[in-house]
Amino acid sequence: MLIILAVLAVVGVLGLLLRRGLLVSRVRGGSMLPTYQDGDKLLAVRRGLFRRLRAGDVVVCRLPAGFAIPGGGDNPLLVKRVGAVAGDPRPGGDGATDPLPAGTIYVVGDSPGHSLDSNTFGPLPEKLVVGVVVRRMSGVQPSQSR
């Protein structure tokens, strides 16, 4: 009986750690096409449990203060790709070549021109990153092109 209670306690603790360490997020809109489709569910590792961010990572982040998504609620989450990290040259077509400030990243959608991202609101403070996407859980799989 003691062994069963010990196993249940370990399973409970592991479940709690996983719940606090993982995040499920849903893609809304087409800004991440063709990588992710509207409605895809993504599994992300929460902030604090992932390694340093790198260009190319897909992140779940909060929208900076002063910006809103129509119908997005009080605190909408965005799914975006990290285009550059602190110290990298600022990407984008605005001609700026100065490096990104410490503690910031530049996030972009995969579908150019169809995204609320750093091209609109500028460098994003890293503290607004909630998690790093590790896999698609469900939704439409991208078609393979020839």
Note the gap between the termini: 59 Å
Low-confidence stretches: none
Biggest sheet layout: 7 strands, antiparallel
Radius of gyration: 18 Å
Supply the CATH superfamily name. Umud Fragment, subunit A
Domain count:
1
What is the average of the pLDDT values? 81
Question: How would you sum up this structure, described in words?
Answer:
The protein has 146 residues and is α+β, with helices and mostly antiparallel strands. The protein has one domain (22-138): Umud Fragment, subunit A (Ribbon). Helix content is 16%, strand content 29%. The chain contains two helices and seven strands. The chain has a seven-stranded antiparallel sheet.
Helix-strand blueprint:
Blueprint lengths: L1 H20 E5 L14 E6 L11 E5 L14 E9 L18 E5 L9 H4 L2 E2 L3 E10 L8
Antiparallel strand pairs: 1-2, 2-7, 3-4, 3-7, 4-5, 5-6
Task: Offer a quick outline of the entry.
The longest helix has 20 residues. It is built from 2 helices and 7 strands, in the order αβββββαββ.
